[in-house]
Fold these 2 entries.
Entry 1:
Amino acid sequence: MIWDDKLNEECGIFGIYSPELDVARLTYYGLYALQHRGQESAGIAVSDGLSISVYKGMGLVSEVFSDESVTALKGKMAIGHVRYSTTGSSLVANAQPLVVHYQNGMMALAHNGNLTNAAELRGELGKDGAVFQTTVDSEVIINLIARYCRGTLEDAVTKTMIDLRGAYALVILAEDKLIGVRDPYGIRPLCIGQLGERYLFASESCALDGIGAKLIRDVEPGEIVTIDENGVHSRQGPASPQRAGCAFEYIYFARPDSTIDQLNVSEARRKMGIELARERPLDADIVIPVPDSGKAAALGYAHALGIPFEEGLVKNRYIGRTFIQPTQELREIAVRLKLNANASVLQGKRVVMVDDSIVRGTTSSKLVEMLRHAGAQEVHLLISSPPVLYPCFYGIDTAEREKLIATRLEIEGIRQYVGADSLHYLSSEGLMRALGNEPVCLACFNGDYPIAVPQEQGKYDFEQKGR
């Protein structure tokens, strides 16, 4: 990837029940709106009430599907999935939704998140004769549901949730119903929308907006929501020990026009900028964002201090995701192709540049260098989140801990590495104020994991990443 100095979300999910409408096409549009959550593969499964059909492949939504392939998917309900994978697991076999035949018929599943006990569960299922065709932990989930399906599908899902550890948001498709599930901590997002008299699920509310649906509410932590011909039904699965929604959804992952757990993402980012202004007011000529996720925080900072906001970096929106970069030199060229400094704005100015995070530090150093070459007199780097110190085990592709720059260098060392005149990270307290002091997971900042993680820090018996 060109932009290899950011954390990556693992996937986005979508599901809709609407016998009167073209559910496959609506799912296609919903996945388009969620494309930022995963660019490796895409898939749609549709149920006509008797059987489930699926079409999936590697690539962007627009690359995987044609008008003909979408038109061929006929049914009254559908689920969809876009996926980001880690190195080594970018295989069509791992693309979702997963579809299986089991004793009660057919079932399809799409999953966002990561199980921390997947290797253990996979081993137990294997001893009982289970056969696996993928290397993703989503297959563990669908195997468990099928194993427990002696009564209703909802009963099987409840029993499965008791076994699962980690983060998960699921949409499950049967011949006659659609089910949405969120883990008891609510780490990964999932919301419910309404289109006319029918209902749907999506990872983010922006996918609802894209098809003209309205946001009803978020799926609660530990909740199992069923949509069928009789409407929406809810039951509580395992009790929620605490809420721990992912803070990085607000910092970077989610689209700014989404609302997650009743908090608008753009508003949260703007408040992060205001908190930065409170913690680190600077005497500067202009404030610029690193497009696009730094924009709202930069606006908040600029408005709070009365400093002009400018677009000092221009983003090239037509660089393909598969741009080849076989050498470090070409990777550096790729950064310049992705973003270009606007010299007319920067010349002779004292510049505050606002970004959402620093992971490895490579991109930040290139951007600072770019601003100086464009004539910036000073470059002050502000980050609208605390230093990333720990890996994530809940569905985010985090670099190995030794590659996280904040684990190797103190802030002054990072400042020297990136070449900025000053560097300030938003404090954890400032971040929490920006998020309304709502309970969120801050494990990547402080190592306080709400759910037990593998003791060997990511050494799994099989590839868990890449939902």
Note: Residues 41 and 58 are 4 Å apart (CA to CA).
Entry 2:
Amino acid sequence: MISGILAAWREVKAIVLGLIGLTVLAGGLRQWRWAALTAGLLGWVFYFFRDPERQPVSQAQDLILAPADGRVMSIELVDEPLFFQAKAKRIAVFMSVLDVHVQHSPYEGTVKFLRYQPGSFKPAFLKDTAENEYNFIGLDTRCGRLAIKQIAGILARRVVCWVKVETELQRGQRMGLIRFGSRVDLFLPPDTKPLVHVGEQVYAGQTVVARWDI
């Protein structure tokens, strides 16, 4: 949990320091119920921003990992105009407030495309989230292109990306987070083979979700 708070400190420091201050103030005034409430909220923030170490279930080089924790919402062929500029296979993962919200790189490669788009905050479990705030990351890998789209939801009001164009990423490396319930889409070439099904729980940097056609 502590490593997650440290990684996300810039994003949560106002919340953490504010809750600590309120807890101390309530304790000083002997308002024990308020002190317990704010301490409980502080504990929940630490829990939400937990960042456990992850290891892939297999080291095989043709396997692609989940970019986020959550449940697979859909697996479908879609038009992807930003990076692929062609058809791409999309695996959409919905993250509830109980999931770890740190994203990991699905495969090793170089960041070649990065776009942040401000927008609305429709519920992330809806299919129509084209107008939501998002961050789109395109990678060139030795096997082909892939992309990750971090999408803000009704509770997620902050999409955080820790990589830049030309950043070299290793498979499973941390690359960003989204504050509170949200969604992450993984875009792959049409000939990749999905290894998960709709409704399955996946874990970032650990669960194998697809295989390259190599």
Note: The mean pLDDT is 85.
